[in-house]
Amino acid sequence: MTAVVAFKQLQSYLETQVLGQPTLTEHLLIAILADGHLLVEGPPGLAKTRAVQALANGIEADFQRIQFTPDLLPADLTGTDIYRPESGEFIFQQGPLFHNLILADEINRAPAKVQSALLEAMSERQISVGSTTYPLPALYTVMATQNPLEQEGTYPLPEAQLDRFLLHLSLDYPDAETEQKILRLTRNERIQGTSTSAEPLTQEAIFAARKELLTLHMDDAVERYLVALIMATRQPQLYDAELATWLAIGASPRATIALDRSCRARAWLDGRDFVTPDDAAALLHNVLRHRIILSYEAEAEGISRDEVINRILELVPAP
């Protein structure tokens, strides 16, 4: 069985467990392949936790869900030194961040000190407690869910932490037909029990697939297109005067890297050995949604970030 076929089987399994969210299941695999983290925003009850649990069942990895609350402390995530009276020593007890797949539920309900602890884990793949630094597993992905900021009791994530997320998805409710399928699925599971993936992917297969992504062909014209899409967020006046009034701060070079890695993962999952401009267009919203900052004029006019990204796709010519 080739690696692509194995991942497609995993994707099919995820789609049987999480109905009506094909974008979520696809982007979970893209995040795993691109070695990145995922931020998901949307109403409750859309199977975000279930999706990560299903992914953990489909690969050789352990899963941990963390409920973020305003009274959470950094040590609740990282772990802490525990004193053992019988030996007179301090023994480090690992926290929930020491797992392969982390679901940070309602991440923007935790204060800045807790968010900074997660930031180190996401960006450096390590945790510091006191004077000691502990490495995290080689396979490490954080999927965070976020409440809309207009709700009470939330803390906006700092731009530095948002930039660490590879992709930012925005989910919506399923349609009536899918809702009926969800109802039948949950009813059958209560009768028969939850199904599991028959052949979990090994971590070695994931690491091998990540290396294979780097060998995919990307034409110079496509590469220039990726760079131009990001540069349009920093120099919008070169494309459109109105677009320039909408953007206050553009995306960092990390956005270009994220777009490149995500496009390669999407092309690989599609069974191609080359990247196309369509890959960039399909992923640009999720790459830029959390990385651009709108101006006061845009907010006053009710312009959304997705509308700004749509304008960029219209203005930047594709090869």
UniProtKB/TrEMBL annotation:
One of its GO terms (molecular function) is ATP binding. Pfam families: AAA_3, AAA_lid_2. The keyword Nucleotide-binding applies. Keywords: ATP-binding, Nucleotide-binding. The keyword Nucleotide-binding applies. Residues 37-167 form the ATPase AAA-3 domain. Residues 247-312 form the ChlI/MoxR AAA lid domain. PANTHER family: MAGNESIUM-CHELATASE SUBUNIT CHLD, MOXR FAMILY PROTEIN. Belongs to the MoxR family. This is AAA family ATPase. It comes from Aliidiomarina iranensis. The lineage of its organism: Bacteria, Pseudomonadati, Pseudomonadota, Gammaproteobacteria, Alteromonadales.
